Structures are given as C-alpha cells and as structure tokens.
Amino acid sequence: MAPQPSSSHEGGLGVRGQIERYRTAFIAVVTMIVIAAAVGGYILAHENLKLPGWVPVLGRNYFTLKAEFQTAQAVTPGQGQAVTIAGAKIGEIASVNLQNGMATVTMKVTPKYARLYRNATLLLRPKTQLQDITIEVNPGTPSAGRLRSGEVIPLSQTAPNINFDEFLAGLDAETRAYLQELLAGAGQGLKNNSKQLSAVLKRFDPLARETQKIAEQLEIRHANVARSIHNFRLLMEALGGKDKQLAELVDASNAVFATFAREDANVRATLHLLPGALHKTGAGLGKLATATDALGPTLHKLNPFAKALGPAQQATRKLANKTTPIIKNEIRPFAREILPVVNQLAPTTKAAGEAFPKLATSFSVLNEFFNEVAYNPGPSKGGFLFFLDWGNHDLNSVVSSADAHGALGRSLVYFNCNVLPLLKGVSEVNPTVNLLVSLLKPPTGAECQSLGLAGGGATTKAAAASANKGSGGASFGSPPTPPTPPTLSSANPLGPTPATGAGG
C-alpha cells in the first residue's frame, strides 16, 4: 500500500489556504494595485483623457466639430487647448491632421453647447505670448441651418493666428527701418516717464468713454444706412418695372399742380377765411363743452330709465319666446302655402301697374294739393279753407235772386272821380263802353272838382278840360249843372240791382 501524502505539504493547499498562509503579502500587493490605479487615474485625469461613450460610468459622448485652417501652428492636441464661445469653454482640441495641404483640426465639444450653424466662423487666438492657442467660435445664425456632428467648416470661414514676425515680414525694408526708428524714439521719449504717461492715459479715459458712445451710435447709424440702402434698392427695382405708371403719375401730378396754380386766388381766399372759421370752431367747441357738461347730468338722470328698461326687455324676451312658435309653426307654413297664389298675382299686378303708370305721381300731386289747401299759416292769416268759406258765402249771395229765366247774379260797380279820365279814354275806344257810360251818367270832372272830391294836379286839370270840351252824346259833354251829390249807378246786364254811390 502506497503511503499517503502528508497534509503539511505546500503544494497540497488550495487558493484560499495559500491566501490565508501569505495573507500579509497578499494584502500588500492588493494595496499597491489600488494605489497604482488611483495614481494612474489621477494622472490620466490631469492629462485630459477622454473616454468614449461606450465605456461604462466614465465614458462620455461628445459633439465632433471639424474645421480647415490655413495653418495649425502652435495647435497641440492633448494639452487641454480650449474651444470657446464668447470666452466660455465649450470643448477641447482633439487632433490635427493634414489633408490636401490644409490643416484639419478636430474638436470635441460638450453636447449641451453644440448649438452651431453652418455659417459659423472660427479664429485661432493666443491666450499668452507663449502661444497658448484657443479656438474662438462664432456659432452663426439659425437661418443657415444646424451643423451636424462630424461636418467640416470650410477654410473660407476660419482665420489663423498672425504672428508679429509675419506682420513685420509683410513690410518692406524702408518701412521696417522707419518702424525701428519710431520704436527707438518712443523708447527714449518714454524713458523714466511712466507716471506721466499713465496720467496722460487716465486723461483719455472720459474721451474713450464718449468715443465709445459715438462709435455705438455710428454703428447704429451704419446699420440704418445699410438697411435704407437695401430698401432703396428694393424700391428702385420695384419702380424699374413701373415706368409707364410713373410717367402717368408725373403727368397726373403736373395736371394737379396746374389746377392748384389756377386756384391760387381761391386758396388765398380760403386761407384768409380760415382764421374766422377757426375762431367760430373754437366758439363752437366751447359751446360743445358746455353741452357736454349738461349732457353728463342728463345721462346720469337717464340711469333710472335705463335700469327700468331691464324688466321691459325681459317682457319682450318672454313675448318673443311665446311668438316664436306661432311664427314658426303657423305663419311660416301659411306663407309657404300662399306663395303660389302670390306668384299668380304677380302678372296681374304688373299689368295693373302698366295700366296706371302715373297713378302714384297723380296721388302724390293730389296729396300735395290737399296739403296746400288745408295749410293754416297761423292766427293772423287765413288759409285757403278760410277763404273758401267766404267764397261759398259770397257765391250764395250772388245767386240768391232769380226770375223766370234763372238765377240773377248780383253785381256792384264802384266809381270815383279819379277813375273818370280812364272812363273817358275807354269810351272813346269802345262804343259799347261809351253807351254804358252815357247811361250811367257819372259826374263830370267839374262836378268832382267843385265838390272837392278830385285831387289837384295834371290829372284834375285834364279832367276839367275834358269836361269843358263838349262831345255829342258823350257823358262828359253835357253842360254844367248845379252841383249835386255824385252818384254811381250799378249796371247789371242780368237785371236790375241796387245802385250804390261811392265818393272819391
């Protein structure tokens, strides 16, 4: 029988037993590993190690921004060179590559700051004189469209850093010599005068502030001028296609101004009357203010009336609610049923209208006639109806007498001594009138004069001369008779009527 291995043999222990056996050394090794991992993590953290997003916990995703530069001098990836917007850090430079003779710089940007657009511009700028480079980003405008991760900004939208030696290399020999002399003279002039120079610069501080305000206003003015020029260009382009309309406008304006020129006197007269009109307008506005002052209390007193309208409107609403079913269910069906009858009456009414084309006008004229007849001007004047009553009364008086031949109209003729010359002239022209005057035997001019009934003057003398002339058969040719009261006979061709005398 083979001998069994001893339990104290070293190779016979398991892993756990070995750890327990070399516990001190194992703890020391584990501690060293942990310390090494912490130190390595610290070092890598300060070396700006960026783990990709697929690494759990420590990994992060970034927005990749690429840009082409004419030169990437002093751009060193992995040194923490920043990408900034308005001085705030948004990412770091990741790498620099040469493609087609141009430097392509790749940047890692924090996603929450990655609001960049396709018209964004980039500028290499040093933070210190040791060429600690940063990339200053202008994000652009939203109208150009959003920039996607990985897109490359072209060379036309980037600008490299310009070194001072490059600036000096752009100058010719004479300019460099003049610049050296200028700097040397400035050095001599500013030697031991730092306090005076500082004081002078302090004096320029208010001027700088005012100059800054002027520059801001000039910038605003520049923007306004640019916008005005743009709008003027649009206006000129719009007017360019309206040349015929502009010509018509000029012709019309010429005619209008010519009309204004012809109306110059009227315009002056209008302007002359304008002060009086404005004065009256002011007076009218003053009266209007008075009326407004009176209107306020009036409207205030109308408030109870307005409040009282509420119940009336409520009653009107109840009436409308009650009458709506009647109109809807009874009157509207009746209107629909009677509509065919109305349509059949239309030709008849049209024919009646054609038969009486002026009927409305006739009734309108009659209405105006009756309104005129019935008009009463007032208590001091009589209207047509008043004189119509008198006319009826006079007509009744005229035809109140009658004989076997019918009604006899009354007539009354008045004469006076002043009418005698007229009767003389008419009797010489008309034989019938001569006969009537002879039958009436009116007083002669001498009789009127002797009674003091005829006025003096040429008319009286002519009447007396006519009376003194004799004319056979004429009423004024009879010889003088003793003075008797003059009488006038009433001649009535229809029958005898009472005679009435009239004095001069």
Any overview of this molecule?
The protein is an alpha/beta fold and 504 residues long. The protein has 14 helices and ten strands. An eight-stranded mixed beta sheet has the order 7-1-4-3-2-6-5-8, with no helix packed on it. It has a two-stranded antiparallel sheet with strand order 9-10. The chain is elongated and about 190 Å long.
Order of neighbouring strands in the sheet with most strands: 7-1-4-3-2-6-5-8
Taken from the alpha-carbon principal axes, the silhouette is: elongated
Q: Which percent range fits the helix content?
A: 55-70%
Number of strands: 10
Mean pLDDT across all amino acids = 78
Supply Rg: 65 Å
Short key terms for the protein model shown above:
504 residues; alpha/beta; two-stranded antiparallel sheet; 11% strand; elongated; disordered C terminus
Topology summary:
Elements: H1 15-21, H2 23-46, E1 63-69, E2 82-85, E3 88-99, E4 102-109, E5 121-126, E6 133-138, E7 152-153, E8 158-159, H3 164-169, H4 173-189, H5 194-240, H6 243-262, H7 264-301, H8 303-355, H9 359-374, H10 384-398, E9 401-403, E10 406-408, H11 420-429, H12 431-440, H13 445-450, H14 458-468
Parallel strand pairs: 1-7, 2-6, 5-8
Antiparallel strand pairs: 1-4, 2-3, 3-4, 5-6, 9-10
Helix pairs in contact: 11-12
